[in-house]
Amino acid sequence: MSDLRYPIGRFSPVATLSPAERSACIEQIATAPALFRDAVAGLSAAQLDTPYRPGGWTVRQVAHHLPDSHLNAYIRFKLGLTENSPAVKTYEEKDWAVTPETRAPIGMSLDLLTALHARWVTLLRAMSASDFARTITHPEWGTPTLDTILALYAWHGRHHTAHVTALRQREQW
To answer: What's the pTM?
Structure first.
C-alpha cells in the first residue's frame, strides 16, 4: 500500500445509491463498531498510543474520533430528514482529536460508537428512497444527498478500521 492515509482508497462520492448499494452501506454502518472493536482488541496502552502512520493520529485518537465524527453524521441525517436542505457546520477534527478525553481509555468511545450505530441503523433501515434523496448544505461539500452521506460514513468506518488493521499487520501485533 503506497499511501498509509488511505488504506482502502479515497472516498468517491455518489449522488444516488441503488437499493442494493444502500443496503450494503447500511450493513457496513451496522457492523462498523464490532469490526473496529475487534481491530483494537488486546492492544496495550503503548500500542494504542502509536500513530497509525508517521504524522498521523494514534490508534487511541482514532478510537475517540470515530464516535465524534459519526455523531456529527447522525445529526446531519436528522437535520436532513426534518429540514429543507439545512445548513450544517463543519468542525475541526484535528482539534477535536486533542481535547482532554481523547487521552482516556477507549472503552467509553467504543461503547458510544456501538450505541450510536444501533440507533442510527434503526433510522437508516426505516428511511425511504425519497428520504435518502434529501440534501444537506455543507460549506465544503455543497448539497450532498443523504445517499452520499450514507456512502461516505460507510466508507469512513472501514477506512479507520483499516488504519488499525494495517498498522497491526505492519508491526506484527
So the answer is: 0.96
